[in-house]
Recover the amino acids of this structure.
């Protein structure tokens, strides 16, 4: 993992335009959203397939892809994939807690990739592709701990290693920078495009509220 001192310097402003609305859901990518909307950030390898997985979930208001968890301000994609910004490819999930829950979304997260892999998912290798969850509320933090505790023994019993997912608050992870226009809802724009998302076949045995 690159250090803050080694990271690329970046820039003060976003160096490219981004769309204002979600290409599938039609909702604002950066708000404003309905009162009570909550936000969770997840990373599970290439963000193209991960984003599609979440925009399909009931209760999700909008999703976007971007870079977070690192040091370089306002990075380009080409900078991020070198590993020299410290960021991971992440999905921002804004959701209505009256229609779904952090627990329901985290169940999808755990089951949709291999969280035992360190700094990779399949053929995508490097710190950019690390598994991560960054929470924004205390309830989300508790849901992260609860679902991890339920899922990890099942994962180990199936022959996988321990969970290697980076778990911390979004505040600690640092700013979330939206990725370039062509990355947003990529698999809607390019239906036969690369996905790279693959789960372990292990079920996360948690009670799902509101799903």
């Amino acid at each position: 993992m690159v250090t803050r001192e080694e990271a690329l310097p970046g820039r003060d402003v976003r160096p490219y335009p981004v769309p204002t609305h979600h290409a599938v859901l039609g909702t604002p990518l950066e708000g404003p959203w309905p009162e009570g909307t909550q936000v969770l950030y997840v990373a599970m390898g290439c963000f193209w397939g991960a984003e599609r997985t979440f925009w399909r979930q009931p209760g999700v208001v909008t999703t976007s892809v971007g870079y977070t968890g690192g040091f370089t301000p306002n990075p380009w994609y080409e900078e991020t994939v070198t590993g020299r910004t410290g960021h991971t490819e992440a999905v921002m999930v804004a959701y209505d807690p009256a229609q779904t829950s952090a627990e329901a979304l985290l169940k999808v997260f755990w089951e949709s990739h291999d969280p035992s892999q360190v700094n990779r998912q399949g053929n995508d290798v490097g710190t950019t592709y690390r598994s991560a969850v960054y929470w924004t509320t205390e309830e989300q933090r508790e849901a992260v701990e609860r679902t991890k505790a339920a899922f990890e023994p099942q994962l180990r019993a199936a022959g996988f290693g321990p969970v290697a997912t980076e778990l911390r608050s979004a505040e600690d992870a640092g700013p979330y920078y939206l990725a370039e226009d062509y990355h947003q809802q990529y698999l809607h724009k390019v239906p036969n495009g690369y996905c790279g998302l693959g789960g372990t076949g292990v079920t996360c045995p948690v009670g799902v509220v509101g799903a």
Remarks:
- The mean pLDDT is 96.
- The chain has one domain: 38-189.
